[in-house]
């Protein structure tokens, strides 16, 4: 029994390594539990502009289990960051509005909380690590103040207890001599150290979910790897779930348990990381995987796919990917919005004839209109 399982794993890894390598030194594949901590249902966020309505998030559905990492991938402008900001209720308004859906975190719908309750949740139960640490840190306050502020709000600590907690948070993100560095201002730290401080703020209140929005793009490759390893370790120590937004499929393979692929404000495919790499069903996912650069020439950004992502102003109904799909266009997809269908256990695909080659095989799963 054990032997046959080993073989299966080896085979899978060999297939993945055609595209990217998967390390076995603690990266990838944390044990999943079944406990769902975050469930997003039919989330819709629109921007009202003078050119029309931008449906930046247009009915997103996913859930995250305790201690797992869900990757969110997709081209620039597909709605990854606006989805993240919507979960935190940090979408700038105006022009943005969350117009529908639910975001249930630990059993409560965040979209129904008062602003006061939401302040408690933000940085308490759920926190976000942004791409640019300089943007997240205030240049006029030292590190002690900024990490302390987050802890003070959520845990109401003061004095020596607060100080110990600040030092402890900095130590968790492996900042050397934390008692000394706590007195530094952001500009006195390297980019990698600043990103760790942002991480320390993110984990300081032991949240259930951390959203990491391209947290390593501003770091060089070596520091990037160290930071990702660190995030992974913290995740294992704290049991926190991570929603990891990235352009980089190499990082996805190492970091994520499951992957959601976003296109034009919607999820077009969602499954575990091996399935996404080895058996993608949606033409968009296939294009993304096919365009993963070989390891030697890894650039970290997704190369261009034929055609342009659609403008999200007044996006017509129907299958938004159809115009770029290499499959023959099916007229029914001009009007019909393709549903996200569970085609195999835990493998969800936005099912349409124009964008899924195996459409006929799964057509019986299409919900009645
Ligand atoms: N304040 C705003 N006003 C109008 N439109 C906006 C605003 N913020 C975001 N958008 C639009 O929402 C859409 C989704 O943007 P989002 O930032 O979520 O993309 P993304 O997937 O995170 O892209 P990237 O990979 O470049 O970070 C884009 O079309 C963007 O132009
Ligand atoms: Mg973004």
Which characteristics define this entry?
369 residues, 8-stranded mixed beta sheet, Rossmann fold, alpha/beta, binds adenosine-5'-triphosphate, binds magnesium ion
Structure at a glance:
The protein has 369 residues and is α/β, with parallel strands linked by helices.
What structural class results from the helix and strand content?
A: alpha/beta
What value does the Rg take, in angstroms?
21 Å
- Overall geometry: elongated
How big a fraction of the residues is strand?
15-25%
Assembly type of the chains comes to single chain
Largest sheet: 8 strands, mixed
Q: How far from one another are the termini?
A: 45 Å
Q: Specify the number of helices.
A: 13
- Average pLDDT works out at 83
Topology at a glance:
Blueprint: H1 2-17, E1 36-49, E2 52-65, E3 69-73, H2 80-87, E4 96-105, E5 108-109, H3 115-121, E6 126-129, H4 133-136, H5 143-155, H6 159-172, H7 178-181, H8 191-203, E7 209-213, H9 221-238, E8 241-245, H10 249-255, E9 258-263, E10 266-272, H11 273-278, H12 283-290, E11 340-344, E12 347-350, H13 359-362
Parallel strand pairs: 3-8, 3-9, 6-7, 7-8
Antiparallel strand pairs: 1-2, 1-4, 4-5, 9-10, 10-12, 11-12
Helix pairs in contact: 5-6, 5-8, 6-8, 8-9
Residues 80-81, 213 line the site of magnesium ion (MG).
